[in-house]
Amino acid sequence: MTKIIQYIYYRIASVAWNASSWGKSVYDGFAYAVLGTCITFNALLIFSILRYAITGAYPSETIDFFLKTIYIPLMIVSVFFLHSKDKKAYKKLEAKYKNDQYRELKGWLIAIYCILSFFSVVIVSCVW
After folding, report:
1. What is the pTM of this model?
2. Is 71 exposed, middle or buried (0-12, 13-18, 19+ CB in 10 A)?
3. What residues contact 13, with CB distance under 8 A and at least 6 apart?
4. Burial of 61 (0-12, 13-18, 19+ CB in 10 A)
5. How many Å apart are CA 19 and CA 40, to the nearest integer?
């Protein structure tokens, strides 16, 4: 599981690193914020669906409540635990994954994962 999270971090950080003007200074924080948000939204979605199955409370009510009260602390905690103490983590991961097989396909899968993480919470809270 750690390797998957590290690879997703590397791919998100590489997008920010390759951005023309702002990427070189904020790639680390940007990658951890996006990854932490994706993980938090996935946990929130799973929790709201489980709550609906157990108690019958609609996921939209659960998501609205948790987005207002728990999202910010949960985001801070997830970024804190995901954040590497190693300042050269990106360079190490770049050396490890630079010549990765199926690089483009994995990049698209990670982009789809991030997009679905963001929109699944919105869709469930609006539709259900």
Report:
1. 0.74
2. middle
3. 27, 28, 30, 31, 90, 93
4. middle
5. 25
DSSP 77-107: HHHHHH--S-TTHHHHHHHHHTT-TTHHHHH
Question: What token pair was written down for 128?
Answer: 């259900």
Query: Closest Cα partner for 17 from 91, 102, 84?
Result: 91
Contacts of residue 82, Cβ cutoff 8 Å, sequence gap at least 6: 5, 9, 32, 35, 36, 39
Task: Look at the chain and report how many structural domains it folds into.
Answer: 1
Domain extent at residue 90: 2-127
> Is the predicted pLDDT of residue 112 greater than 90, yes or no?
yes
Look-up of token digits 């259900």: 128
